[in-house]
């Protein structure tokens, strides 16, 4: 009799973005043993994309592992449906309609393929390998160009009846507020708390305050990084941009807490590089809007996963989730 | 060998309110075999309350059942904690602090006792015996004097890490909006969509429209029932009260849908007697604020449980939930 050495069981984690697809072979300890990437938008047909991925991945599998150690494939992709294994009407991908992605992958690779959206995958990655190890109830917020989320309740991802649950970036935080550039909704969290939203806020606020350092930059150069640089130098307008953003984010988080009562909220993505400029007002306005029974209990935690690897780790965690 | 006759297995369902406590012996089919009530606020000590309850219930059990058919006790109570079996800091009860209610009940009755808040119990009741039979993902909203909620995801109640999840009535729908009479929060759903909130809206709106029928009533007589009567008679102001309430409720429901993607939202309580006056604007504003991926999928359904019995049925469902 021999014990199974978990470090020798391996999964393929695939993170599909509009431009690039990253992949990695990950073991049960969350170590990435080999990785690479291909261009997503070079392939007009999904079958060509999968063929190209297979050509890159299969030599790595053959080189490092026996086939029986290969447990399966996990995929994080925009508009991916966990229940159906499909990518559905993804606006940023060339493959239109409903793509039976998991089925095509299994046919090609000969192992099971599980998929979900990228933020859900990131939440699983944090639970298995990151800051949420040991937690059974938490919410993962990814604050980048957009705002994504993954919700873990009772140790399981919330998928909802159709596999599309956890679109917290699109919840409305200010009814009748800022119009979203892509969805058209008014006052969604993403319209304020994404890097895109922060740039919009900064452009509005600098127009009101001609003395602000933010006016030293060209319109097209204003982004959340520039706002952070100005805030660090003490520019009150830049600081106010993050305070306002944090207020909107904190108000939204309070509502999420009263929904699923998580132990922690994990924050991930470019926006959180602003550190206390955004974290302090976020915490203040979250606490202020909570019922007393929830106050001073929910941890706001920064992700512990390396940003470059988080999506791959998260996708691979899908394989071992069940 | 004999099959178990489920109609002969019985649970005690107890619904504790600030003034009255209702109880019933319920079988596995959701039939109430015997019921009764005692005054909650007559008993200064919780032990006295439990003694009084036992005196009323035990003769019924002895009369109708053998002890081996008595599966356990389920209790719905304000601020009840599922994990700890406690009632904690309930503002409307005389028993202060943290009351180990389930433990005291088990000691007295000799069977397991499970408890949760009343809206969670109602959600279980709908899943086991009501309009949500066969559903695994739905949200129950109780719209009465206050606004309560119970969330079922993947066939299970969401309790959160501390047992207090699902306080959707206290989520903020209008930041900086109407101050809540008891929690002090600003712009919560309960401040608008409860019967209390509707009366406040009606009093404000009738002051603006002197011609409204609502002005035929004394200030203290304005309640959601009066508003409904006026709306039925075609009073535009009364109709606007429900339209505005439905807008706020619909906006909130859209956010809830993007959290857990339920198959349906069940509505229960006195407020829904207003029927289409509130249902139509609720649906309109829910759909309007949803991402396209969620639109025209979520059913808005009225509860199928008799209002007088729902709380007892829900509480008894706790016994068979596990």
From TrEMBL, chains A, B:
Presence of keyword Ribosomal protein: no
Keyword Transferase: yes
Superkingdom field: Bacteria
Protein keywords: Kinase, Transferase
Pfam families reported in the protein's UniProt record: ROK
GO molecular function annotation: kinase activity
Gene3D superfamilies recorded: 3.30.420.40
Protein family per UniProt: Belongs to the ROK (NagC/XylR) family.
Protein known as: Glucokinase
Species of provenance: Chryseobacterium koreense CCUG 49689
């Amino acid at each position: 009799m021999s014990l199974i050495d978990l470090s020798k069981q391996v999964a393929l984690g695939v993170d599909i973005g509009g431009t690039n697809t990253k992949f990695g072979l990950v073991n049960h300890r969350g170590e990435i043993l080999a990785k690479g990437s291909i261009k997503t938008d070079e392939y007009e047909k999904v079958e060509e994309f999968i063929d190209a991925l297979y050509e890159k991945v299969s030599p790595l599998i053959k080189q490092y592992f026996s086939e029986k150690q290969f447990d399966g494939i996990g995929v994080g992709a925009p508009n991916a449906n966990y229940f159906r294994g499909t990518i559905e009407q993804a606006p940023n991908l060339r493959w239109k309609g409903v793509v039976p992605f998991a089925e095509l992958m299994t046919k090609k690779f000969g192992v099971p393929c599980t998929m979900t959206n990228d933020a859900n995958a990131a939440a699983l990655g944090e639970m298995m390998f990151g800051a949420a190890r040991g937690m059974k109830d938490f919410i993962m917020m990814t604050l980048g160009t957009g705002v994504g989320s993954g919700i873990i309740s009772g140790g399981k991802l919330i998928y909802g009846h159709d596999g599309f649950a956890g679109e917290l970036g699109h919840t409305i935080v200010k009814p009748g507020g800022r119009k979203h550039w892509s969805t058209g909704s008014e006052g969604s969290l993403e319209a304020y708390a994404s890097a895109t939203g922060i740039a919009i806020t900064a452009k509005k606020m600098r127009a009101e305050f001609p003395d602000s350092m933010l006016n030293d930059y060209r319109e097209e150069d204003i982004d959340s990084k520039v706002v952070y640089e100005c805030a660090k130098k003490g520019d009150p307008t830049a600081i106010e941009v993050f305070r306002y953003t944090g207020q909107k984010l904190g108000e939204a988080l309070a509502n999420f807490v009263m929904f699923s009562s998580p132990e922690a909220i994990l924050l991930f993505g470019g926006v959180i590089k602003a550190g206390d400029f955004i974290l302090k007002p976020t915490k203040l306005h979250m606490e202020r809007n909570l019922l007393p029974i929830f106050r001073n209990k929910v941890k706001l935690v920064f992700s512990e996963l390396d940003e470059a690897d988080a999506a791959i780790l998260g996708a691979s965690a899908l394989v071992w989730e069940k």
